[in-house]
Specification:
Number of strands: 34
Distance between the termini: 75 Å
Strand order of the largest sheet: 3-7-1-14-11-12-13
Low-confidence stretches: none
Mean pLDDT: 97
Structural class: alpha+beta
Bound molecules: pterin cytosine dinucleotide, CU(I)-S-MO(IV)(=O)OH cluster
Helix content: 25-40%
């Protein structure tokens, strides 16, 4: 007699199942790109430009060719003969693969050497003589648009200046009118500095072209293998079915592994030319100086306010410094990503956003480091602006937010920029957070401490993040619609394999996708293996970024499991000798409605699909589901931090941090908590210690791990996480919303707000991140705002 199974026991949704991938990771048995060794494999190294902006007068590679063990030296000139000196970017721009005419940022790829080992290749790079004629460098948007500024992209026709786009969204006139009727207008200006994801593993690829079969296999650190396959097909003009992209284990992505990098393209061309496998593994400084930059936006805005605290309108302007090539990976329709998700959680009648993108002599930015397409900047500005407005009004920070939040009964809620929020309980999240931090008590302590010269501060930040692009109506990358798919095969013994087009980089997909199948079918999670990352076996998907995997690929997993269940129901009816309408489902088994003891397990249905199917039924138990989400999912979070600032040194310490995240149904609560802790750690690092900027010559200052500090357990504060608020996503098959980035998105403003709050009374409105001690000290001592915008003096 079969029985329903206990969902938590079999590792279904809600089970804090240990991550199955960690079995190999913590034993050192992961299989990363650099672990792969192919017979006859050669090694590639890249020569990078020491200058930010310079004309290339000549490149002499003859000495490099002479070094024993060197097989090939690639230069821009050679690439050009194959039409590969330039490649298209994901934002309809072009990017140099190897420089031909000019170098446009420090660290740009100038030449590649392919040799017997990486050391020979590196030495040979140093033997290449490049004659540069330096040009003035541009390191911020004001220099970019100044009269007489050198045109960085003189390679492009119809590009007379350094402006990439001017974009706007919202209601300009309505916003004007609302401002005219305001009692008070509050303003804020800030710079969100460049930041870098710095995953432990750098980027890399091994290209393996086989002349005999015409097949190109590339092992590659990519978060989006199918998109890369399409890009390689287009760039290298190879047939797509002859390209196999394998993304093995990834040692952290955080957005760094979304773009197509010159190193990938060069290793592919080298393998085609040499007919041998060619491995390129980026070194740490190459990673830090040339790939994966995020942010670098200047944000200004104004809020129109009524005396009682009601927000009447918001006006925002963004100047985005994209570096030398506009290579953002983002939906085509939105020039500045989802910046217009700013203020979505607040019930604001009307708003207007303008954005201008400019080129500069910096590495291409626009990787949305742990961020759904610029949402991090949007939420940072939102929460800094909200704090400034509450201060200007003389209102309590929490009360001001509560008064303006979208209320529970307003969902689905249309924002003034046109998004449709699915669901949420914003007030409740705030309540939980305030209680956890003991808000009223802290405010009292703060007063008392102040009277004794001690500076305590409390910062609140909230965030709501549009996660799960598409729907395909609005979201595409280079015209390819954004949706995902999942493939599920149930073997005859009831064990299964599920594959998706997503590609985890440490998020735990191998654990959680199995849990979704368990939830839908009652098959124990341990009986289900998850596979991602091989374009020859995985179904199509747009990849893993923008926390889209659970909202899209995860939904596809649920949907394909439901297709399997529908077929299993037919098999069950056949086995139970009743009609399908008389069959009921409970987790793990079908039974006869009128005789509940009379049932068959899902495993019995599986074997029947291979051994005892009804006449006319197609044998086997496998299927594919494509999922095009009807809307984005909108998780919400409240982060509250208390700090103490030392007025003598500017050093600040976190006293306590609480996080209240509502990401709908949690598939694996432990994994969700891990995601939040990781995100908060990165948020803390961005706000506190990660310093990387540019001097007037375009030198990347701080492109080393002495200045750009990675947080360790030692300095990272503890976090108190709260999970009691759960608002299921109404349109997601299992009610889940994304979570992967939320804490990195909403976290930074909480830390900065706390430090600014500690400085109450000094008149300081803003200190740009990172809030290094010297900046905080200077703000306190001279009672002034501190801008972190480049250029800085080279000795800073
Ligand atoms: N999850 C869950 N319940 C939910 C939501 C998510 O159990 N309601 C689980 C998921 O099943 C998945 C994990 O949490 O195992 C993250 O899911 P999701 O929010 O869908 O995010 P993605 O899987 O799409 O991951 C991408 C996101 C991004 S964009 C960045 S950047 C980032 C992040 O994940 N990079 C990471 N977290 C990272 N974590 C690690 N370890 N390494 C990275 O490179
Ligand atoms: Cu936005 S960084 Mo993550 O989307 O890969």
């Amino acid at each position: 007699m079969s029985q329903a199974v206990d969902e938590i026991k079999i590792g279904g949704i809600g089970a804090s199942r240990k991550r199955v991938e960690d079995n190999r990771f913590i034993r050192g048995k992961g299989n990363y790109t650099d672990d792969i060794v192919l017979p006859g494999m050669l090694h590639m190294e890249i020569l990078r430009s020491p200058l930010a902006h310079a004309r290339i007068k000549s490149i002499d590679a003859s000495k490099a060719w002479d070094i024993p063990g060197v097989h090939l030296v690639l230069t821009g000139e050679m690439m050009a003969t194959r039409n590969l000196a330039w490649m298209p970017t994901l934002s309809y721009d072009t990017q140099a693969v190897l420089a031909t005419d000019k170098v446009r940022f420090q660290g740009q790829e100038v030449a590649c050497v392919i040799a017997d080992d990486p050391y020979i290749a590196k030495d040979a790079c140093e033997a290449i003589v490049v004659d540069y004629e330096p040009l003035p460098a541009i390191v911020n948007p004001w220099q970019a648009v100044a009269d007489g500024a050198p045109v960085i992209r003189d390679d492009k026709e119809n590009q007379p200046d350094n402006i990439i786009y001017n974009w706007e969204v919202g209601d300009r006139d309505g916003t004007e009118r609302a401002f005219a009727s305001a009692d008070l207008v509050s303003k804020l200006e800030l710079h969100y500095p460049r930041s870098h994801p710095s995953p432990i593993e750098c980027c890399g690829s091994i290209a393996d072209f086989n002349r005999a079969t015409s097949k190109l296999t590339v092992y590659m650190t990519t978060q989006a293998p199918h998109i890369i396959r399409a890009a390689v097909a287009m760039v290298a003009e190879l047939p797509e079915h002859m390209i196999r992209i394998i993304s093995p284990d990834i040692g952290g992505g955080f957005g760094n592994k979304v773009p197509v990098y010159p190193g990938y393209v060069c290793s592919i061309l080298a393998s085609i030319l040499l007919e041998r496998p060619v491995k390129w593994i980026e070194d740490k400084s190459g990673n830090l100086i040339s790939t994966g930059f995020a942010r670098d936006v200047y944000l200004t805005g104004e809020m129109a306010l009524r005396k009682d605290g009601k927000i009447l309108a918001v006006r925002m302007h963004t100047d985005a410094d994209h570096g030398a090539f506009f290579s953002d990976a983002q939906p085509s329709k939105f020039k500045i990503g989802l910046m217009h998700s700013a203020f979505a959680a607040y019930d604001i009648p009307v708003a207007h956003l303008t954005a201008r993108g400019t080129y500069s002599n910096k590495a291409p930015g626009g990787v949305a480091y742990r961020c759904s397409f610029r949402v991090t900047e949007a939420m940072f500005f939102q929460e800094r602006m909200v704090q400034a407005a509450a201060t200007d009004l003389g209102m309590d920070q929490a009360a001001f937010r509560r008064m303006n939040f979208v209320r529970d009964d307003q969902f689905p809620h249309r924002t003034p920029f046109g998004f449709l929020l699915d669901s949420g309980q914003y007030g409740k999240c705030l309540d939980v957070g305030l209680k956890a931090i003991d808000y009223d008590n802290f405010r009292q302590q703060q007063e008392e401490a102040r009277s004794r010269g001690r500076l305590l501060g409390l910062g609140i930040s909230t965030m709501t993040e549009p996660l799960g692009a598409g729907n395909s109506r609005e979201y595409d990358i280079l015209g390819i619609k954004m949706f995902d798919s999942a493939d599920l095969k149930v073997h005859m013994t009831g064990k299964a394999i599920v594959r998706t087009g997503a590609r985890g980089q440490g998020q735990g997909h191998e654990t959680t996708w199995a849990q979704i199948v368990s939830h839908e079918l009652g098959i124990p999670a341990d009986d289900i293996v998850v596979e991602e990352g091989d374009t020859d076996t995985a179904p199509f998907g747009m990849g893993t970024y923008a926390s889209r995997s659970t909202p899209v690929a995860g939904a596809a997993v649920a949907m394909v499991a439901r297709k399997i269940r529908a077929k299993a129901r037919k098999l069950a009816a056949h086995l139970l000798e009743v009609s399908e309408e008389d069959v009921e489902w409970e987790l793990g088994r079908f039974y006869v409605r009128s005789a509940p003891d009379h049932g068959v397990t899902i495993q019995e249905c599986a074997i029947a699909a291979y051994s005892n199917m009804p006449d006319g039924m197609e044998p086997g138990l496998q299927n594919t589901a494509f999922y095009d989400p009807p809307n984005l999912t909108w998780p919400f979070a409240v982060y509250i931090v208390t700090v103490e600032v030392d007025p003598e040194t500017g050093v600040w310490d976190v006293l306590k941090m609480v996080a209240v995240d509502d990401c709908g149904v949690r598939i694996n609560p432990m994994i969700v908590e891990g995601q939040i802790m990781g995100g908060l750690t990165e948020a803390y690092a961005m706000s506190n210690m990660q310093f990387m900027t540019f001097d007037a010559d375009g030198n990347c200052v701080g492109a080393n791990y002495m200045d750009y500090l990675l947080p360790t357990a030692w300095e990272t504060p503890g976090f108190e996480l709260h999970s009691e608020v759960v608002t299921p996503c109404p349109h997601h098959p299992i009610g889940a919303k994304g979570i992967g980035e939320c804490a990195a998105v909403g976290g930074p403003a909480a830390f900065v707000n706390a430090v600014i709050d500690a400085l109450t009374g000094t008149g300081v409105r803003n200190i740009d991140m990172p809030l290094l001690p010297d900046r905080v000290w200077e703000a306190i001592t001279y009672r002034r705002d501190i801008s972190g915008a480049p250029p800085v003096r080279a000795d800073d």
